[in-house]
Amino acid sequence: MQLQLIRNATLKLDYAGRTVLIDPYLAPKHSLPSFTGRSPNPMVELPAEIDDILEGVDLVIVSHLHDDHFDSVAMERVPKHLPLFCQPGDEATIREAGFTNVTPLTETATWEGLTLTRREGSHGLGPVVELMGPVMGFSLEAAGEPSIYWAGDTVLYPPVADVIRDTKPDIVVTHSCGARWDGDLIVMDAQETVAVCEAAPDAIVIATHMEALDHATISRLDLRQAAEERGIAPSRLLIPADGETVVLNRP
What we know:
Helix content: 10-25%
């Protein structure tokens, strides 16, 4: 398999002969409002032209409808005929944007040899969860490929730990920028990401959703230093740059 981090949570995944685009966030740098007053968003440009990002895409997955996961540019530019999986409740909005092949991922679905399983997530803990709204992660499996657990916009809480323990994925993708909303943590920070590495000692953890938004509190360097302090080898925690491609094979 081949995984390319585009920017923020946006991934382009070549997996079992198919190309999957996850959470497309395609807005130009500084074209959207700030979350904290620190900077307009996104804080960085895309690492490639949109046409190149969309080239060859067979399937789209949208975890939730926050602008930094599925923005108006993506709604306009992503081809409307592509099959698209989303979390239940978001399908009407996506269809209203013109997409014609939208499937809510309620439990487990199969598509062209890929098996997707919806996983719970919590976009923070406490009252902020109602403000953030529902989110999902997913597991992805296919014959001959490493199993993937894409945790999504979630903090580390018991259901996430349960998925890691019960499914023993080969790869765990985390959102690790430590974003905060009114002081509340709404995605994993460095310590929670390191805890994921420790909970999945046989997996490779890939930390994404970093250095793109102004409510982030953890940089790539912060995360690497925290991992080193806990003895997590760089080969076990990958922290790709925007545009970087990671190639991983089934163990």
